Amino acid sequence: MAKVVKKTGRKGQEPVTRDYTIHLHKLLQKIQFKKRAGRAIREIRKFAARAMTTKDIRIDTKLNKFVWSNGIRNVPTRVRVRLSRKRNEDEEAKEKMFT
Known about the structure:
By secondary structure, the protein is an alpha+beta fold.
């Protein structure tokens, strides 16, 4: 029989860019009005961390302004984001990659 070589672990993280639509409406149900926009930003961070498997998430100011554009209460229902996993150039950084 042929010898089967088994790969251990997963491939190292490489820089990649993907587009996603985050459905904020379903993530913000039953959240009181004065906490909605801040929670939306945290949910976007959580989504990006899960999708890109990085802990260091940096949110662009344009995205932040878009989420807050209708005020603290009326957060946009959906938001289209482009997530980019990049190498961390900083020498003493804990994480090798950031999003």
